[in-house]
Fold these 4 entries.
Entry 1:
Amino acid sequence: TAVGKLAEKDADYSAVTAAKNAVPSYLGVYTDESVARLNLAINSVEEGLKTDEQALVNDYAAAIVAQTKALEYKPLNTAAYDTQVARIPADIENYTADSVKAVTDAKAAVDTFLAGDVNITHQAQFNTLVDALKTAIDNLEKEVVAFLNTHDGVI
């Protein structure tokens, strides 16, 4: 019968192939959970279906596209920043104004950056800001207090 011959033809998987080809080649910047959902969609594709199941094949393609769009970037790794903030001396007022300003400006730059919509794709920019903070902390200069000696004692 004509219906029987139609059912014997292979379904068109071109949308599935296109959806798979649209998946980013490197998934390391995405959360494990979102990559797992994408892999589930890809691995759920049943090959060899016939044209009478084309709707199912189309659903497979749609699921892959949806999970590709739903990939979520990993957050920034902020451990180096936390380490630098912990290095800022509690007695920072005992350092020169210029060196303290360098630290506070560098920290403010990192804090402003973190307040934005950032993720692991911004890690290099973040690391540069943290390096500037580290340098500012390394260059803190103690305030020198000078005492003048007079015949009457210390002034």
Note: DSSP finds seven helices and two strands in the chain.
Entry 2:
Amino acid sequence: CIALKKYPEPVANGLVFNKEGDILLIKNDEWPDKYTLPGGGVEMGENLKNTVKRKIKQNLDMDVEVKGMINVQEFMLHPDYFERKHLLLFNFICETDESPTLINRNIVDYIWVRPQDAASLGIDPYSEDAIKNYLENSGCKCKKHEEDDKIRIKS
């Protein structure tokens, strides 16, 4: 039995966009059979933006530029998560022109996907909520996706 900490743990995640306007989702051992946003735990004395950069570099060997915050979520003892935790999730919009490398053995897969198509892949509920929040408040303004939508409409 794992003892719960007496306080929530802060986590910083990145909604990482590539040049095409797709977002990066990863599969790891924390959410079995679900995609999730990359990120991780905040270290003592580390600010949230630096956490996102460090965790993505550390786990995927990829540099990102943090653009702004999407939302904050409270995560409490979710039954599908690999252990019982109480987390505070700080989700940020990030950009990169690099491709990930699976250098962390806990990350088993990744995919680039259009933000509006992410929910159909089977993603954890907190990542799904962060992406939905981004789409509702910022919209996907990527030219490539606008062109793709025009082509689909004409077909």
Note: The beta strands are 9-17, 23-28, 35-36, 39-41, 65-76, 86-95, 107-113.
Entry 3:
Amino acid sequence: VPLETAPPPEAPYRPPEEEPEEIEEPEDVEEPGLPENAAAADAAETTGPSNADTYVVTWKSTPHPVPMNEGFSLEVRVAVAGEPDADLADLELAADAAMPDHGHGMNRKPRVTRIGPGHFQVEGMLFHMPGYWELYFDVTRGPLRERAQFAVQLE
């Protein structure tokens, strides 16, 4: 039986040597950062839509800006998007916050009090550590609940 021999090994592939192509960055590139509805450090009020755009939620903290490891309260107004005269008597609000990167929320359960139709006071908020927080407002009207969330960067 004749002995079969393997073909000679091929030389490893080496791409032709070329100068690396210089890539130009466009001048208007935005740096990644907080979402559009992030709480600006100098803004007295922050406004943004609920996740399905049914509501517009506006909030402000006292004290301002949101402090670290100190209690604060929120004044929250909710409106129906595109319906400034909508009846808000049956609107309910729940508030909470979490640090999604850390997998935990606040160490407190906030209390929400209705001031008037679509107008609420949230007491007992506390962000106990620096970093990226998300503030959640769950708006309930009848059987439907919709969330508005806002990014807060605490230094």
Note: The first strand starts at residue 46 and ends at 49.
Entry 4:
Amino acid sequence: FYDLGSGVGKIVAQAWLEFGVRESRGVELAAERHAAAVTAVAEILKRATGGTAGGNAGVFCGGRVELTCGDILDADLSQTTVVWCANVCFAPDFDARIARKLAQQPRLRAIAVIKDFAEGVEGFEYGGAGEFDMSWSHECRAQGLGGGGLVHFYFR
């Protein structure tokens, strides 16, 4: 599993703890968010594993959970089978560059994004969209603005 734009690392930790993925990785460009993610994920994993997660500098659980500070386009996705990207604020040209990178990953089987790729992803079928609760869902409902957010899926 790989979270492109992993922010404070919540989804990376959740994928590892709740869904039992073999490896869970995230890349975040903003150094402040990355630093917050390393601290938060260290604490989450420490509590969840009774202190056995170990790790520092963003590498935990013997390298099976990893957070890096860097550019999405530079991330090594060669072993990744599932990608999540909360790309709602990305410019269309950046989305297109991400889609091209994803199309080149031979092991990649599933992609989930908030904003669909305008041109799709070469070699992937669009699997539709579903509404899911997001971190902002409760506040939006309280203000009468609806519920969750759409997530678009692509499969190979």
Note: The mean pLDDT is 87.
